[in-house]
Write a structure and sequence with these properties.
Two copies of one chain form a homodimer.
Chain A (H helix, E strand, L loop, with lengths): L4 H14 L7 H8 L3 H17 L3 E6 L5 E6 L3 H15 L14 H4 L2 H14 L7 E5 L4 H11 L3 E4 L10 E7 L6 E7 L8 E9 L3 H12 L3 E11 L11 E9 L2 E6 L6 H9 L4 H6 L1
Parallel strand pairs in A: 3-4, 3-7, 7-8, 8-9
Antiparallel strand pairs in A: 1-2, 5-6, 9-10
Chain lengths: ~290, ~290
């Protein structure tokens, strides 16, 4: 099939965008579009501009035998701020407060569009170049962890709370959940994580950090190392978490009926944070409204 | 910011592709690209060609006050067949057989790329024009259900197996799981599904259909109606399922060490099925290999 130049460019954008962090050789495109290498190279220059002008990440060229091009998704500072501010407004809606000080959030965190944006923000703020997989614990973190794994082009591993014998030999552990201060169990099939793997942990909520600490310990049992951690919401108290190095998108404090929710940009990568401190944004004004 | 024609086309492809089934007005694009309506209209003709030539779905124009353009993802017959045959080969690997006749599949069904393709195939074979949400039951079906919801631009609802009081007033029920013939429970917060909703059910595995039947009953309790059902794998036996109207992507029979796995194209939409019967594909040959 014959593609015009404009169509080829659209098609290359679609293919790269659907497959973040996957390397495509020049040969793949010359074949698919029945076009010369020089033609595809020119197309790729336009494609690179598209992603950069939209501030949706970078298309980079990798040289060598395993070379080609790949698309690295990255969210812009402006996009992050707008998205997180909107989300904070939704979260702080009074009707979300449940008895016991819990918040009803599953309509938001299960939403595919929101989960997808969260995944891209995690991928923009966690170094995953060396990572082998994304690990989460069921259930509420799964949508955002899957979208993170998609943006990073990594497999997803889900830790179960019960022991599923139907998954073969399984390693189980107990941990103390900060939510309930109860001893809970987690389990994972032996073959789900290979020894010496480097993993990224993703979870939806962190209070004291007990769950993330438990997941880290479980990874040690597999001989795997945690090289990055992302949580969607962390609470302001306790300030001293069991986990030190993490990014959390939103900070939360519930004081009776009073909910304080704000973007937690200080845990973001330097490039986002510095701009935030020096920049022209008016997040604090919006919060004070 | 100024975009050249080729860049605009790439950018429109990216925006539509990232937001399936979302309507964008012409004004959105004229604003974003600082271009005339006639210019954007011309661009959209090229964009439509891109999706059709790649066989990745359709861009349609909606007239009227709420009008604009939207992208409806759709997988092609050739893509479905290639993807499902590859998957069947992976599934039938002997090393996946666990004691008790179970199969180790979580590395496949949690994979973001695979889950994403499964979601697009479901979206191509289930009528969701009237649907309000996608409903699944934890845990293994969540990744494919999320990707289905993303392709359909619908919210995702996850039924829990335990009762989570932290989600507010919750409706719980028991059902008989075909896997274990045990009575199990499922629960869902009252506010997760609105009365008179129309829902799509997605699950990873169906033997007798007890789980899907239970999910359907739970939806009745919410005053909601199931208008489509998709399962990833269904077993050949029992032939007579509790559920009649569903699409299943793969059919499975485990007979001791002997695993028969094949694409279940007869449950696909007519357009796929007829082509399959009449067509030039060689699926049966591949299976007999």
């Amino acid at each position: 099939m014959k593609f015009k130049r404009t169509e080829r460019i659209g098609a290359i954008v679609k293919i790269l965008s659907d497959n973040p962090n996957k390397i495509f050789t020049l040969g793949y495109f010359t074949n698919k579009f029945n076009a010369a290498k020089s033609t595809i190279s020119e197309d790729l220059i336009v494609v690179k501009n598209v992603f950069e002008k939209l501030e949706l990440g970078k298309v980079i060229t990798i040289s060598g035998a395993a070379g080609g091009v790949k698309y690295i998704p990255k969210t812009s500072k402006a996009e992050n701020e707008e998205f997180l501010m909107e989300l904070c407004q939704k979260i702080s809606d009074e009707s979300r407060v449940l008895s016991g000080g819990f918040l009803y959030l599953i309509d938001l965190i299960y939403d595919p569009t929101i989960a997808s944006k969260i995944g891209k923000i995690f991928a923009s703020n966690i170094d995953y170049a060396e990572a082998d997989c994304v690990v989460t614990m069921e259930t509420k973190g799964i949508p955002m962890a899957l979208m993170t794994a998609k943006a990073m082009n990594l497999p997803l591993v889900i830790i179960r709370k019960d022991i599923k014998v139907s998954e073969g030999p399984t390693l189980s552990m107990t941990y103390v959940s900060g939510n309930t201060s109860k001893v809970e169990s987690m389990s994972l099939p032996r073959r789900a994580v290979k020894p010496n793997s480097k993993v990224i942990l993703i979870d939806d909520f962190m209070r004291g950090g007990g769950t993330i600490k438990g997941m880290t310990d479980l990874m040690s049992e597999f001989g795997a190392e945690v090289i990055g951690t992302g949580v969607f919401i962390s609470t302001m108290k306790p300030e001293d978490k069991m986990v030190k190095d993490y990014i959390s998108l939103i900070q939360l404090d519930v004081n009776g009926d009073n909910i304080i929710v704000e973007p937690n940009l200080k845990t973001f990568k330097d490039e986002y944070q510095k701009e935030f401190v020096e920049g022209d944004c008016d997040i604090e004004e919006i919060i004070e409204d």
